[in-house]
# Entry
Amino acid sequence: MTAPADPGLHGWLVIDKPEGITSARVVAQIRRATGVKTGHAGTLDPLATGVLPLALGEATKTVRFAAAGHKRYRFKVRWGIARDTDDREGAVTAESAIRPDQAAITAMLPRFTGMVLQRPPAFSAIKIGGRRAYALARAGHPPEMLERSIEIAALRMTRVLDPDHAEFEAVVGEGTYIRSLARDLAEALGTLAHVVELRRLAVGSFTEKQAISLDSALALGHSLAASG
# Structure
């Protein structure tokens, strides 16, 4: 059987990932639409939106370099409620009546800037004994996640929305979990928290200004594959 012709698509495509879809599903849809090998530079949770750089064809050989760059996020935290996933999709595990004020939050942020130790969420794609941590957690056996050193290059609070919610922006290194950052910041402030909104604004030199919608990318991919 003759292999399908290579459409000759090589390079990077920046998707503005919509909420409610996994990064792997985005990759699969673009691969089907274009007919070429596709990879991504940094997983986004289904809850998250924003910049998802996709490598097409020969560009997949450079994914590891793009994924190692700094990533910039905007996220909203809900104080006073802990969830097992550390975001709004999980089950409530504990509640607190304590709500940190703006001064306390601002004073705490320097402790979470630079090289810090972070414990990843149990609901994550990290492999534990050959299985994904989230698979173990969903099966009722959440694994013990070990702390690891990560980089938070910049962290600032952009606004206090109300006593229960605050919005932040962070620039972080590879392997950093924003869900864990929100959880740990809340614990340091004597309360609980989880992420209710998360948007990635940039991955290295790829920014949201370069991003196109998934629907537009799929239409473009089908068109290019057909013309190739």
Notes: DSSP finds six helices and 14 strands in the chain. Residues 1-5 have pLDDT under 50 and may be disordered. Residues 214-227 form the longest helix (14 residues). Residues 11-68+204-227 form a domain with the Pseudouridine synthase fold (CATH 3.30.2350.10).
